[in-house]
Amino acid sequence: MATIERLTVTMPAEMAATLKRAVDSGEYASASEVIREALRDWSFKRQLRLEELAALKQDIDKGLDDVAAGRVREFDVERIADRGRKLLAARSS
């Protein structure tokens, strides 16, 4: 079984009231249960953000590699806008 550690948490009154309402309504058995679920959600979202950041860094590195290798085109606003219009039209139909 995991070791249990007691912590003291300070929060704004409105957050404490929300937590107490969740317990008082019977949705949760205790304030600790609410906090544990909140931490699990936070950990999950944090992991997703880290994975998205890693993917973004890979995309940036690929783009920089393409530039270094000369795999680039001239920036053309009309070409990009036309491509966007085509993608939007395809999605609409």
From TrEMBL:
Residues 5-42 form the Ribbon-helix-helix protein CopG domain. Pfam families: RHH_1. It comes from the Bacteria. This is Type II toxin-antitoxin system ParD family antitoxin. It comes from Candidimonas humi.
